């Protein structure tokens, strides 16, 4: 996706009291960066223009938020949206410009967020070798595990069937239980749902939004997440079933044989 360079974005961000750029100084101390450090901490990975971030922060003054994105051009819009909805310097939100691929450089278990949001991340579904760039890929999930609080949750939304089905497998393989799932978020009546910029766009096109809450367990991943690759066959089967209106069995009922097939081995559904 091409993002237009905005001349105003960097100066506005650098003047913003709640903006940080690739700072490792806050690692383990993010809670102290807020007006009320004792509140729960939620992170948003790939917040984009911050449409849902701003709405969440305004609606939930009892939660502290860190919104992360790699692009200062979109974060410029996020800052403006936050200011419009939450006022000039809301005490419960910070913006971090950083590459989530290396997110453990910036957060650790002392930060212990209770929740991570991942909404409409790039599906990287065209070529299998690009899967590892997904924000839900096991190499990301193991990093989130290291920082999340016990029982911490990942709230994941997407329009993309392939990404959703693959991600369900990733979550299970990485020791997350599925606590909630729907293939039609708008129709499910689930609340609270803060609609993001991309969600608005897909809803206007009539695309059903897939959504799941994945809760971290003590179950550690039994494979090498850096080399992990999901076989195309598994994904193809999931998509065929989805096209036929049949959903993959709930994550709890699917056995993924990671350990038996070795680090980079094939992972097949029973
Ligand atoms: C498709 S947009 C979704 C934005 C927003 N969550 C929404 O739902 O409207 C994906 C966002 O993730 C950001 N992103 C992609 N890869 C990233 C990475 N490795 N680190 C940080 N941000 C990333 C992009 O800059 C972009 O703003």
List the topology elements:
Elements: H1 9-14, E1 19-21, E2 41-45, H2 51-59, E3 64-69, H3 72-86, E4 93-97, E5 115-119, H4 138-147, E6 153-158, H5 161-173, E7 176-182, H6 185-188, H7 197-204, E8 210-216, H8 232-243
Parallel strand pairs: 1-4, 2-3, 2-5, 3-4, 5-6
Antiparallel strand pairs: 6-8, 7-8
Helix pairs in contact: 2-3, 5-8
S-adenosylmethionine binds next to β3 and α7.
Portion in beta strands: 15-25%
Any ligands, ions or cofactors bound here, and which? S-adenosylmethionine
Low-confidence stretches: 249-270
- As for the CATH topology, it is Rossmann fold
Number of strands: 8
Helix % is 25-40%
What this model shows, in words?
It is a single chain. The chain has 270 residues and is an alpha/beta fold. The protein is built from eight helices and eight strands, in the order αββαβαββαβαβααβα. It has helices at residues 9-14, 51-59, 72-86, 138-147, 161-173, 185-188, 197-204, 232-243, and strands at 19-21, 41-45, 64-69, 93-97, 115-119, 153-158, 176-182, 210-216. The longest helix has 15 residues, at 72-86. It is globular. Residues 249-270 have low confidence and may be disordered. The structure holds S-adenosylmethionine. S-adenosylmethionine (SAM) binds at residues 46-48, 68-71, 74, 99-101, 119-122, 196-199.
């Amino acid at each position: 996706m091409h993002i237009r360079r905005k001349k105003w974005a960097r100066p506005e961000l650098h003047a913003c009291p709640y903006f940080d750029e690739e700072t490792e100084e806050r690692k383990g101390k993010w809670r102290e960066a807020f007006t009320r450090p004792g509140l729960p901490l939620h992170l948003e990975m790939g917040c984009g223009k911050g449409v849902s971030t701003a709405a969440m922060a305004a609606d939930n003054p009892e939660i502290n938020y860190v919104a992360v994105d790699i692009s200062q051009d979109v974060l410029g819009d996020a800052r403006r949206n936050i200011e419009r909805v939450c006022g000039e310097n809301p005490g419960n939100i910070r913006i971090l410009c950083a590459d989530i691929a290396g997110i453990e450089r910036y957060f650790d278990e002392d930060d212990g967020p209770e929740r991570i949001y991942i909404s409409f991340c790039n599906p990287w579904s065209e070529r299998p070798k690009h899967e590892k760039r997904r924000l839900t890929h096991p190499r990301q999930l193991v990093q989130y595990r290291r920082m999340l609080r016990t029982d911490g949750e990942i709230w994941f939304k997407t329009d993309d069937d392939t990404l959703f089905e693959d991600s369900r497998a990733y979550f299970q393989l990485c020791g997350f239980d599925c606590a909630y799932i729907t293939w039609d978020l708008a129709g499910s009546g689930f609340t609270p749902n803060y609609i993001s910029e991309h969600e608005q766009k897909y809803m206007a096109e009539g695309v059903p939004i897939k959504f799941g809450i994945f809760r971290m367990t003590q179950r550690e991943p039994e494979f090498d997440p850096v080399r992990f690759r999901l076989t195309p066959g598994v994904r193809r089967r999931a998509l065929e079933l989805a096209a036929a209106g049949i959903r993959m069995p709930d994550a709890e009922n699917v056995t993924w044989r990671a350990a038996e097939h070795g680090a980079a081995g094939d992972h097949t559904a029973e």
